[in-house]
Automatic annotation (TrEMBL):
<dbReference type="Pfam" id="PF00255">
    <property type="entry name" value="GSHPx"/>
</dbReference>
<comment type="similarity">
    <text>Belongs to the glutathione peroxidase family.</text>
</comment>
<feature type="domain" description="Thioredoxin">
    <location>
        <begin position="1"/>
        <end position="160"/>
    </location>
</feature>
<keyword id="KW-0560">Oxidoreductase</keyword>
<protein>
    <recommendedName>
        <fullName>Glutathione peroxidase</fullName>
    </recommendedName>
</protein>
<dbReference type="InterPro" id="IPR029760">
    <property type="entry name" value="GPX_CS"/>
</dbReference>
<dbReference type="InterPro" id="IPR029759">
    <property type="entry name" value="GPX_AS"/>
</dbReference>
<keyword id="KW-0575">Peroxidase</keyword>
<dbReference type="InterPro" id="IPR036249">
    <property type="entry name" value="Thioredoxin-like_sf"/>
</dbReference>
<dbReference type="InterPro" id="IPR013766">
    <property type="entry name" value="Thioredoxin_domain"/>
</dbReference>
<dbReference type="InterPro" id="IPR000889">
    <property type="entry name" value="Glutathione_peroxidase"/>
</dbReference>
<dbReference type="GO" id="GO:0004601">
    <property type="term" value="F:peroxidase activity"/>
</dbReference>
Length: 166
């Protein structure tokens, strides 16, 4: 069975990060943007990350400029904005496409594993979230309207009910 561990992505610093390096953790993968109505969700994502990271949880942020050109900056501008405005300390990756023929392979996989509203595979907007279990399997997809705090109980459930190593 294919998992997210088959993929890699470049950090904002340009370093290739195999997602296998997150093996055994519960993950929340989110496409982000700095100039979006949902941008304040960075605060809630960071809060979840800080609260649960010592239990084997991480948020992985993937900036995307496909929705209303709401992520126009380069990697350094994105990093600076996230750090200065929301004190983001969770891993952020280079800007990617999440839809279309240039979609990052990770997002093609995520969408194939958990559809959105009415069975749609396409990502509809920034801050769509995917919850991943400790085995690298997609558990659930959340719309941008779902605040990070509303996902808390699902994260806690995975952290409490799965062994820390696959």
């Amino acid at each position: 069975m294919e998992t997210i561990y088959s993929y890699s992505a470049n950090s904002l610093a340009g370093e290739t990060i195999p997602l296998e390096s997150f093996k055994g953790q519960v993950l929340l993968i989110v496409n982000t943007a700095s100039r979006c109505g949902f941008t304040p969700q960075y605060r809630g994502l960071e809060q979840l990350y800080r609260e649960f990271k010592d239990q084997g949880f991480a948020v992985l942020g993937f900036p995307c400029n496909q929705f209303g050109k709401q992520e126009p900056g380069n990697s350094q501008e994105i990093a600076d904005f996230c750090e200065m405005t929301y004190q983001v300390s969770f891993p952020l990756f280079e800007k990617i496409a999440v839809n279309g023929k240039h979609a990052h392979p990770l997002y093609t996989f995520l969408k194939s594993q958990a559809s959105g509203a009415l069975g749609s595979q396409a990502i509809k907007w920034n801050f769509t979230k995917f919850l991943i279990d400790r085995q690298g399997r997609v558990v659930k997809r959340y719309s941008p309207f779902r605040a990070p705090a509303a996902i808390r109980s699902d994260i806690e459930h995975l952290l409490q009910n799965q062994p820390t190593k696959p």
